[in-house]
Amino acid sequence: MTNAHIPDKPALEGLEQKWDAAWSGAGTYLFDRDAAKAKGRAGVFSIDTPPPTASGSLHIGHVFSYTHTDVKVRYERMRGKTVFYPMGWDDNGLPTERRVQNYYGVRCDTSLPYDPDFTPPFRGDAKSLKPADQVPISRRNFIELCEELTLEDEKQFEDLFRKLGLSVDWTQTYRTISDDTIRTSQLAFLRNLDRGEAYQAMAPTLWDIDFRSAIAQAELEDRDQQASYHRVAFHKSDGSGDIHIETTRPELLAACVALVANPDDERYQPYFGSTVRTPLFDVEVPVLPHPLAVKDKGTGIAMICTFGDVTDIIWWRELDLPNRTILGRDGRIIEEAPDVLVTDAAKAAYAELAGKTVFSAKKRIVELLQESGELLEVSKPFTHPVKFYEKGDRPLEIVSTRQWYLRNGARDAELRDKLIEMGRGMGWHPDFMRVRYENWTNGLTGDWLVSRQRFFGVPIPVWYGLDENGERDYDRVLTPDVSRLPVDPTTDVPDGYTEDQRGAPGGFDAERDIFDTWATSSLTPQLAGGWERDPELWDLVAPFDVRPQGQDIIRTWLFSTMVRSVLEDGRAPWTDAAISGFIVDPDRKKMSKSKGNVVTPADILDAHGTDAVRYWAASSRLGADAAFDPQNPTQVKIGRRLAIKVLNAAKFVLSFPVPEDARITHALDASMLATLDQVVRDATKAFDAFDHARALEITESFFWTFCDDYLELVKERAYNQADSGQASAALALRMALSTLLRLLAPVLSFAAEEAWSWFEEGSVHTAEWPVPVGIEGDPAVLRTVGEALISVRRAKTEAKASQKTPVDSLTITGPDAALDAIRSAEGDLAAVGRIAQVSYAAGDTVSVGDIVLTPQEA
């Protein structure tokens, strides 16, 4: 390309559209399978890209973390790797269903038939509708709306990611609800089932009463809620008095199965092995020891109910207690009383609670306890952490349900140790994130609950044989041949049966549950890499080179992917994990939709340009939180200034013609290039270590020195065709520009590409990463001469004189080596400083003094 392509006034505006179209047209970022096969696995760099949830809009945190990934990817591509950079969309799951309900004003009712002509009542914001006012529709109609809306969201996401300059191969995309994905997810599960790693069980389950679905441990978060302690009297069975307990959940008294105290608590040691009778319901329950009981909490003795919280589950399981669940899946007290309630008074008390919500039941039982005299005291309200589904609005309850589980090491020491071992064999960036993975793995209390009672997701591919009474025989699980995948048990029929046997005695019944979204997202390497679909591709990209992600989903996405890979292949799914920090607001609070402090990126990109925003993101190291103030995005403004300077500096450098026989002959030019050689070494080392922020810092620091000092020092010589050093200066400038554009290209992707196009063929992003050119030179020359130039400029400024003011004479003091360096570049210094005569004097440090300005110019 020639200088004719250089605009008169270079600008950042419009570069995103221009170069996105050019990259797409040229296939710049396509995965070259033939090249990958020629190089082998070692020549490929593969990324297990996070698939964003396609429900709603992207936020500034996506820009932050995805830029970190893209910077590393662009570097590896320039290093000669064949890059496999796919993009996925996480379509299914509870957030998508909630968004569809709020967008269209509908809710799913599985009892309704499919309506092929259904038109939703809204296409926009129906969020203000109460659930009762949402239009009930069939499961198939509901799923069709989910498909429609996610496709719309995904297109908007892709447009934003293209604007952000992600060098993704957009032909390598996948959706977590496509036929290929469903087949892969179902196949992996059936293999887990065959190996005994997947199983189903009736067990206490964390339950969201709004979503009407089970929730896994990894999806929990604690939120502070207000509560009060209710001091209640339990009656000793021998009639010798009462034992007082304090509880925040008196509404669960009918589900009480024991009292528990710490085995070292002398107050209650005499009662271990005895029994007490519950207030109101007069049920005999044991008093038992357990180390999880806290001596100084409340009265030191607690009631175990089935189930008030996760500690109740532990006590229930380890103490082998009965299950008297009284809460239904709708969050209301069930109508049928536990069979241990035998007295008329007990049954009457329970009838007062049946059908009520937890809140109403608590209010009523407090009244009943007051009437019976068994409520001794109610404490002042206080706040305490309560378990919520991370996307839910009400506290979780615990109900007993039959669910599917996947072994994750919680009850298998050998598997847990293997997961820890695989984690330690990976590179973690930053390394301390590995501790979070290990803490989660070691702290698991139960296997991974993978089934959900929802609609839009991957169907669990099993049926159940029915006995002669039409009841499910859970010991007779029917599975499809893998050649039939994907299947939907609610519409497909198991081998050996016909449709008219569905639900009939001796026939079959479909599993209606779907997989938890993480059960599919945990297979992103397999989904993107063609596992069991494209063996050649899988061998070229797996195990992947890097898993980039946020720190908040180590416990969900990273851990679950590790579990699936270890169970299936006995290895880690990647060699490295790159973990980004959080985005925080100016008050250092994490940005989240629930806090209402999320910034959407479109306006920021429009206002400041993509390169400016990429610079802000790349300035933060992996694992470090970054503050963002949309009202005053200082770092973004600095990035914009840098990107504009790159364009202007390139235009300036390219204005100097380079003779064909040009060589580096001038000490100052050699010194600058020698300094740049070290910058290349240091930036390369930083990129190899996943430290993009350090690489940018090193490069940017040199770039500003290059512009402020070296360009100023050599421009007179570079302009002067009669100067014997002109060719050396022009060549050095051109070499430095080529190197700097490639060093900055991973971050300033658009400005670097634009400037590169002015004098080079092809894309800077497929150019070779710079290597040290090996020119001999003393970097101290540039530094020392630059210091002298700065001193001359400062003197003129203090004298309130123009920088063009001639200097009759000056004296430079310094060590001999420094003075020799300055003498070698005296011509450049004299030219740019308008200096007529330079004198030298020995000294400990470099300083410039005795500056005599031309009187008429002073």
From TrEMBL:
This protein's domain notes: ValRS has two distinct active sites: one for aminoacylation and one for editing. The misactivated threonine is translocated from the active site to the editing site.
NCBIfam families: alt_ValS, PRK13208.1
Protein name: Valine--tRNA ligase
Superkingdom of the organism of origin: Bacteria
Family: Belongs to the class-I aminoacyl-tRNA synthetase family. ValS type 2 subfamily.
PANTHER family recorded: VALINE--TRNA LIGASE, CHLOROPLASTIC_MITOCHONDRIAL 2 (PTHR11946:SF93), VALYL-TRNA SYNTHETASES (PTHR11946)
Subunit and interaction comment: Monomer.
Position of sequence motif 'HIGH' region: 52-62
Residues the record lists as binding ATP: K593
Domain Aminoacyl-tRNA synthetase class Ia stretches: 22-107, 134-628
Domain Methionyl/Valyl/Leucyl/Isoleucyl-tRNA synthetase anticodon-binding per the UniProt entry, residue ranges: 669-808
Cellular compartment(s): Cytoplasm
EC number: 6.1.1.9
Keyword Nucleotidyltransferase in record: no
Catalytic reaction list: tRNA(Val) + L-valine + ATP = L-valyl-tRNA(Val) + AMP + diphosphate
Motif ('KMSKS' region): 590-594
CDD domains tied to this protein: Anticodon_Ia_Val
Role, per record: Catalyzes the attachment of valine to tRNA(Val). As ValRS can inadvertently accommodate and process structurally similar amino acids such as threonine, to avoid such errors, it has a 'posttransfer' editing activity that hydrolyzes mischarged Thr-tRNA(Val) in a tRNA-dependent manner.
